[in-house]
Every structure is written in C-alpha cells, then in structure tokens.
Amino acid sequence: ACCRAAAGPHMVALVPGMGHGHDFRAPHGYAFAESIVRDGTPWCVQASAALADDTVRVEFAATKPLDRATLVTTADRGFTGDRKWTESPATLERHADRWLVTAPLPAGTTAWFANVHRGDLVASSDYQECE
C-alpha cells in the first residue's frame, strides 16, 4: 500500500524468506539505487497486473534483459511473513520494450505476486490478495 501511495514509479523486490532485516549484500537494492542515480527511474517496473480466468498476466517495463519469471503464491492466511510461499515457473515473453509474465493461478491461492529475474536481480509485481 505504501508503494502504491507514493508518487512516481516504484520498484519492489519480494523474495520469499528474505525477511525485513535481510542481507544488505543482496544485489536488489544496489541495482535499484544505481538505476535511479544513472537514469532517474527504476530499472524494472510493473506496467500492469491482472487475473482473468485463473490466469495471472503481469507486464513489466525493464531496461535490462530478463532471464526468467516465477509466480509466487500462498494458500495461507494471516501475517504474510508467517505464510508458506510457493514459487512456480511462469512464462516470460518479450514484446518490444515490455515483458509479459503469464501463469495459471493454483486453486486455493489467497495471495500472489510475480517475480522477474535478471541473474541475481529480482523485481516483483505488486502483492495481490485474492477475494
């Protein structure tokens, strides 16, 4: 909610198990900071996200080529840090300057987000709760 409320583009890296007091040697924060200083914008941002007919579709705009995508889901409820998260492969397709991630949403999913990867770097879609 904080990211969506802030003005301008935002970038999130949601990595299951990373926790709030994560290892600051992880490359995500440094790549984000470098792109802001060098280009004035995050290196990867979510352009859109939708769920239709139990299929997740997320579009990203990225200045770096992406390697792969994963769908991260949970069937648990409660505090997000206590939930069991499952990562599954997702389809990643390049369309000009955009990257499309698609994946079937498993039955019983209570929350999800998509991650795109560039080597050790991760960028995430916004966290989504299922109704």
Describe the structure.
The chain has 131 residues and is mainly beta. It contains 2 helices and 8 strands. The chain has helices spanning 2-5, 27-39, and strands at residues 44-52, 55-62, 68-74, 86-95, 98-104, 111-118, 121-124, 128-129. Strands 1, 2, 3, 4, 5, 6, 7 and 8 form an 8-stranded antiparallel β-sheet that branches.
Features:
eight-stranded antiparallel sheet, 2 helices, 131 residues, mainly beta, 13% helix
Shape: globular
Query: How many DSSP E strands?
Result: 8
**Mean pLDDT across every amino acid position:** 82
Q: How much helical structure, as a percent, in the residues?
A: 10-25%
Question: Which structural class matches the secondary elements?
Answer: mainly beta
Strand content: 35-45%
Continuous helix count: 2
Radius of gyration: 14 Å
Largest beta-sheet characterization: 8 strands, antiparallel
Low-confidence stretches: none
Oligomer: single chain
Question: Gist?
Answer:
By secondary structure, this protein is mostly beta strands.
Helix and strand topology:
Blueprint: H1 2-5, H2 27-39, E1 44-52, E2 55-62, E3 68-74, E4 86-95, E5 98-104, E6 111-118, E7 121-124, E8 128-129
Antiparallel strand pairs: 1-2, 2-5, 3-4, 3-6, 4-5, 6-7, 6-8
